[in-house]
Amino acid sequence: MHSFFRFCTMKSIHQTWLILLVVCFSFNLQAQDNKKNKEKDGIESLFEELDRLFTRSSLTDAEASELENKFVEGMKFFITDEYEKAIDIFLECYQKMPQNSAISYQIALTYYKQNDFDNALDYAQKAIKLHKENPYYYALLADVYESLEQYEYVSEILTKLVKRLDVGEMYYFDLAISYLYQNKYLEAIEVYNQAEQKFGLNEIVVSHKQKIYISLNDLDGALKEGEKLIQQFPLSVEYRVAQAELLLNNKRGEEAKKILDDALHIQSDYPQTYLVLADYYEATGEKDLQIKSLELAFESPALDSESKLNVLLTYMSDQENKNLAEKGLKLAEIAVKTHPNDSKLFGIYGNFQLILEKPRLARAAYQKAVSLDPNNYRLWEGIVQIDSDLNEADSLIKNTDRAIEYFPNQAVFWFYNGRAHFSNKNYTESVQSLEQCRLLSQENTEMQFLVYAHLGDAYNGMKEYHLSDKAYENALEIRPNDSHILNNYSYYLSVRKEKLPLAKEMS
Length: 507
Prior knowledge:
Layout: H1 14-26, H2 36-56, H3 61-79, H4 83-96, H5 101-113, H6 117-130, H7 135-147, H8 151-164, H9 169-181, H10 185-199, H11 203-215, H12 219-232, H13 237-249, H14 253-266, H15 271-284, H16 287-298, H17 305-314, H18 322-338, H19 343-355, H20 359-372, H21 377-390, H22 393-406, H23 411-423, H24 427-440, H25 445-461, H26 465-478, H27 483-496, H28 500-506
């Protein structure tokens, strides 16, 4: 169920209320744009309710003014999420005017915001008893029952609401969803039907009903719902494509193909049609037509990059299958042309190149990807690994330097940077990077061994023999019989004519 942010204010308090309104809505403009109209209606209703109740009360003008000001103060705290302070003030207002339904509602809403559902329930019920014609009171009570997971009461409250009051379509949706929580599918369908009769055909309602029918294994029911959209909107191909997909998923391919052909006659450039056609050709084993359909879909910029990415991932399911990768690469080439600013697509394009043993092309694709999204660790890791595999020290230094800018706490980039500098005989820089790697990887025994092994070589290059020997000894503490360390350490000792018995023993 949709839970909406509601609060009450009063028209008679002029500018103060207007400021509060602006502040409150500013918190929710982006995240709840689709709820804005409903919230505004609720606020207007509460303005009017408070105004009416203050006007009809037995309070003197001075008392009413004092209570209004007190309520405004509470609203200021409510809007800034200081609910403890707000509730104290609202309860004080309630003591002075317990018959004011809007105050009861605001207390209930504040308790609801604090997840104090028992007190929220009490005051929401009081608000409805005082004013049985305000839909927002019922909506809050339903939200409270939903939070308590008492869905049968949610259904009961919302049923009363839609029967008694002239409310919007969203309340019918909430009621239907409350039935779904209780696995009362037929009741949910009936509510959707009521909404459809009252408000007209709605594709969201149709979609929900189709899902319910499918869960009930009633394919014909789901298809009838889809057919209503096709009849209502005969030139909108998306409804035909959705119908075809439903048929195809239920092994009624020939019927699906006929609908897809009709869709292509109406609009030949709708990319989703070709995606579903590709599924049809896959099912019939017509692989060439499947690929051709996917190419036509991928050539359309109207098909979003995420959909293309999902298709491409299926071509990476078997990385030993070079034929599959070749097809995936062809699609990926189209995808990066139609979405030249999508980092993920360039990344998967590089993956296909790597599968097909084209590491330099893969690296170029990864580099394009990180130029678009430099905070993607996996892409940098791929670039660095390719540099290392190709033994291209200059490129490895350049790329690890850049990777470290974005991931300074990743030991692996410092390690490869140190290794590359050693290959170029930049021993000082090598040691600096390796020591940083050592500090960052103290819990990683394997990395510590590799670091000490390379530090032994790098310190020897600097003629810091004491530090070189110490690094080799630290490596041998981790792997006493490692042939590489034993060979290098014994060789350097022999060259220096130091610790010759030890050198002989290791040799």
